[in-house]
């Protein structure tokens, strides 16, 4: 009997626990100071009325014999899969509903998708990045190489023809940097993947935050992507579903490796190890895409994007280098005066009582950088920005 | 780029699709005949009022800024973990709430738990059994050996000291056979596991159907089990959550292998690859264990158990060998006249218009056996039993 030894190779993540520890220590020493948190990646606005109404109705249905729903298809109800196809058709992407898999969120599927790939594949992961990409591959014992995000490439690394990767993670708009790939940049990734027989795992969890209509909101807006990419999306940030749990994964029928359909492999994985998303939640998710739902979530996103604008506007004013905030809820800044990420964290906490997230927690290229989030309350964002201005 | 080749070793499961195909073909040829399905493993009674009320309230909370819940702890809200500890204390099992992990159902966790174990471990699986145990291990490329369920051992196989297994699956009350291990039998499994350093994966999804108070409803009622067993439970059958999705997994702190806490490994797995169960669903699950909730689900279980009694009583009357039905919603019968499972399926469909599940779909020892389920409607069960009686 042995445990999976790869788990012992995982680095403990102290990022958010250390943030909490430092904030609590500061508050204890300075009980009169009001600390503002701009570090959180969670939403703060509640579910929109269209979603609440749909879920109330669904709960009532589950309490009546004539409308009760037991097991549904593991890949999700057809009503929701077709709704998502309709949503994609408005992006000029044509999908079949059997290419859509409803999930309990992008995080689960991004981790679980690795089941269908060989352990010997080499994985290319941007640095800095959402830590789950790295950890799930360490757990499986896969070889990981990194694509470096830097100031020079605006934290949007491009493929290197000299490097051979089999599985490529892309996240656009990016967490933590807020950087967004344009059409040409994504074309170069798709072209690399097609040439090298690689599969792109495209995380588009923040796609609804894209304001610039020339930027792709789905990898399938790039020609040929259906032959080399799986797309993961989530309602967590789109519609405030972080505590309600629903997302979806697109595995095109055209995606074939070793003469095998990856769609069929994923269907087999999901029917064997998953039992679908609650009916109630799927009805809530369907309502997100109704006319009322879309209008209501648009207002919430506008609220967060106004916060982002206030943050990036202030950073511009203060001449602090940054990306993000225009088409994403995250702003990624270079710590002033060459401070390290944690030094800047301490400096902001001590001098402005503003909490952000140290960039070094997202990979070695994150050292010297810092993430601010637009998911807070307007008045707190305004107050935090005033404090930043007073710091100079 | 290679796919996980082990997926190609999976046997396609035609069981339920072939059942559906045959039933549809029969109905097309015999439109006037009323077919009764006693094959389903899904519940038919709706959610109880206590659960519906709790979820209605939780949905409303999610629509208000002051009560909105975003990300929760991946392992579940403390209120639910503590409620489950309380439920176990009534079983005379003492748990800490950090030993309880809330899941979206037993199926997910039973598949995903394999992540924390080495690929080279040998797995012992009863035959016949719930196909997920086998398929998830085939997917990972583990060596599988079988514990044979037979008429002689009442489909409750016991450990064989000459066989070395690292991971052992037990399911009691069993799906598909309905057989339940008694205390002494479980003691022999725990003793084997402790001696051989094995880990028991104990699936107790049907524990609430146990009527005989001398039978264990948790593996932890056996001394020493906390050092060798993980328990998986689900509200799917307990409280009709098949479409609402909530279960829980117990990983004791005392369970150590390679000097490593399996509880910590599972926590790391879940925090990395899972984002928790919807708040709304966790509030519904909490209500299952309230006084009202427990009373209401007890009535539903009594309804199903009365169905089971009608079925097993009829089989006794007809002198058909069977197990199950006294402490489980499944009845496992030996096909009369040495018919194969599919022959008996066809025979029942043609001559009584009753649909069950061929035992051969659950493993080679299931050949010649047949599963009937008590989850149907009372009037249909009564009618089906009358038709069986007329067959002799």
From TrEMBL, chains A, B:
<dbReference type="InterPro" id="IPR015424">
    <property type="entry name" value="PyrdxlP-dep_Trfase"/>
</dbReference>
<dbReference type="InterPro" id="IPR015422">
    <property type="entry name" value="PyrdxlP-dep_Trfase_small"/>
</dbReference>
<keyword id="KW-0032">Aminotransferase</keyword>
<dbReference type="GO" id="GO:0010285">
    <property type="term" value="F:L,L-diaminopimelate aminotransferase activity"/>
</dbReference>
<dbReference type="Pfam" id="PF00155">
    <property type="entry name" value="Aminotran_1_2"/>
</dbReference>
<comment type="pathway">
    <text>Amino-acid biosynthesis; L-lysine biosynthesis via DAP pathway; LL-2,6-diaminopimelate from (S)-tetrahydrodipicolinate (aminotransferase route): step 1/1.</text>
</comment>
<protein>
    <recommendedName>
        <fullName>LL-diaminopimelate aminotransferase</fullName>
        <ecNumber>2.6.1.83</ecNumber>
    </recommendedName>
</protein>
<keyword id="KW-0808">Transferase</keyword>
<dbReference type="InterPro" id="IPR015421">
    <property type="entry name" value="PyrdxlP-dep_Trfase_major"/>
</dbReference>
<dbReference type="InterPro" id="IPR004839">
    <property type="entry name" value="Aminotransferase_I/II_large"/>
</dbReference>
<feature type="domain" description="Aminotransferase class I/classII large">
    <location>
        <begin position="34"/>
        <end position="388"/>
    </location>
</feature>
<dbReference type="InterPro" id="IPR019942">
    <property type="entry name" value="DapL/ALD1"/>
</dbReference>
<keyword id="KW-0663">Pyridoxal phosphate</keyword>
